[in-house]
Amino acid sequence: MRDRCVYDGVGYTHGDRTVSVDSAELDQGRQVGRSRRKLADRDDLLARLFLLPTAVYIIGLVAFPFFLAILFSFSDVTTGNPSLDLVGLRQWRTILSSSIFWTSLWNTMIFTGISMVLIVLISHVLASVLVKDFKGKWFVRFCVLLPWTTPVALAAVSWLWLLNSIFSPIDWVLRWFGLIQENSYYLGRPVLAMGSIIAIHVWRIVPLATVIIMAGMMAIPSEINDAAEVDGAGFWRKLREINIPLTLPITAVAVLFGAILTFADMTVVFILTRGGPTQSTQVLASWAFFKGIEGGDLAQGAAVALFLFPLLLAAAIAILRMVRRREVM
Known about the structure:
Layout: E1 6-7, E2 11-14, E3 17-20, H1 23-41, H2 43-73, H3 90-96, H4 99-130, H5 137-149, H6 152-162, H7 169-176, H8 190-218, H9 222-230, H10 235-246, H11 248-264, H12 267-272, H13 284-294, H14 298-306, H15 308-328
Antiparallel strand pairs: 1-2, 2-3
Helix pairs in contact: 2-14, 3-14, 4-8, 4-11, 5-8, 8-11, 11-15, 13-14
């Protein structure tokens, strides 16, 4: 049998050999082990440690810039004069008296409203198709998700070429079919320009909404769809009477994410139209950038950007209340 080490109060004895160990060192080692076990067993302390990086991120990159923007909006700070003298509500009165602000606000509401309606409808149809089993399903899913994985700047530049007033491949195809006789000037006419940026934004956001709604549809019990098929319900009837009502809470989450991305997005407008023609595609996010960054008026740019906050807050509260009422029902 293998010899065992025996502790005799002075040291460990193994056969005829004795290794002396200081009792203070043993006590210290035991205390370290106990302290480590206590640390690992304290869920509240571990939770705080895990939340610390998130808290640092939110404070450093969200909370601090937000309160700094509030301070800027009540000052006269510019890129050429960073003195930060407080001037009260002067910047707010200036932007509220500007016709461009009201045009941008109206364009933002139109841009967001039409985009969200199209995103919800298209994503529901795509999700209803993609949850089914068919040959090549994974390739189709990859193609649907591709716009979301494409960098927005690269996608916008590609669309800028597709919508070019002279070399547009879209116009070439339409002329080949005899549908148009002259160039469409998609980005040079107010209605077509707004329609173009809405279409591109929908193309970008639909994949994200489709994935979210697919998750909700997969949670619907298969017995419900089987019973609907037995009753003779077709694709559109099941979509209208089963999929949309049962996925309404998760659809609201998709709408909330989409609304936030739409309100705060300025990349498509900046690259394609820069707010033109004649401010017809100018939105609050892009105008805040032009005023604060390109124009150098940080105070007015911050004031314009802060107008997005109550709009987003109101939209979030309305959507969350709708979800809560739906859950109660």
